[in-house]
Design a protein that fits this description.
Length: 279
């Protein structure tokens, strides 16, 4: 496991192997593709959250509904004192986005499994194909604290402020305006490019070849070399929040940056809103 400024949010596969039968621990697989990965083999006792149904709605926007988030946790057998371990594919986009949501809910103990499902499988660890059925429990959610969230107006105000770093973590081709998003041609009304003044540091700056996070000092050096200063207010974005949620996790949980707000609506909102500046 990579050492971190805040060790608790990151656990390795061995820790998970030693704890997946612990009744106080709930494993959650967070998938970008509906059910396929989970159905072919998931960690024993893991429940499934689907990014596009459980975290993002059909409009590609965050499900900002405390009651819906409470129901998601309740049906997953999660109580306020449960240790939640999140994982997904090797890059853990869904897992880190879910971590950000649970951070807003102020859940006490949330971890991400370093290297995700791919590392678990590469090590020959056990899986199962049956869907996990859990007893519904009570998880009341009255409010959500979105202090770590940037909205469109916040991003507009940050342009040229001198106090902010707007951080684009997408592909170089997206930043350069050659793609609106990976794997899809722009539709009518979709503009490619980047937010004016945004610094480009791709999300994969943070990972090793096997999908695990780089060592803390290597991460710190890489981001500071690109001008990502912990004394500034940082707003990462991508297309719909998955890749930038990964960078938010790195900066806040592994490096301890104090002022990072995720613009999860990202380019899916900015690039389709008439009148907004684009470079």
């Amino acid at each position: 496991m990579t050492a971190s400024a805040h060790p608790a949010p990151l656990v390795d596969t061995q820790w998970v192997a030693e704890h997946f039968e612990d009744p106080t621990v709930r494993l959650v697989e967070v998938d970008l593709d509906p059910e396929e990965a989970y159905a072919t083999g998931h960690l024993p006792s893991a429940v499934l959250w689907q990014v596009w149904d459980d975290l993002l709605g059909p409009d590609e926007r965050l499900i900002d509904d405390p009651a819906a988030l409470g129901r998601l946790l309740s049906r997953s057998g999660i109580r306020p004192d449960t240790t939640i371990v999140l994982y997904g594919d090797a890059w853990n986009f869904g897992a880190t986005l879910a971590f950000w949501v649970l951070h807003a809910l102020d859940h006490r103990d949330v971890r991400v499994m370093d290297g995700g499902r791919d590392k678990w499988l590469a090590e020959g660890r056990p899986t199962e194909t049956e869907s996990q059925v859990t007893a519904t429990v009570e998880y009341p959610v009255a409010t959500v604290n979105w202090d770590a969230r940037a909205r469109l107006a916040d991003v507009r105000a940050a342009i040229g402020s001198g106090r902010h770093t707007i951080l684009d973590v997408r592909l170089p081709q997206e930043y350069a305006g050659e793609l609106f998003r990976p794997g899809a041609a722009p539709k009518e009304g979709q503009r490619a490019g980047h937010i004016p003044g945004a610094t480009h540091v791709p999300w994969e700056t943070a990972i090793n070849a096997d999908g695990t996070f780089k060592a803390t000092e290597e991460l710190r050096a890489a981001y500071q070399a690109r001008g990502i200063d912990p004394d500034r207010q940082i707003i990462p974005y991508c297309t719909v929040g998955g890749r930038s949620g990964h960078t938010w996790f790195v900066l806040t949980q592994l490096l301890g940056y104090p002022n990072v707000r995720l613009y999860e609506a990202s380019w899916a909102e900015w690039g389709q809103t008439p009148g907004l500046p684009v470079e």
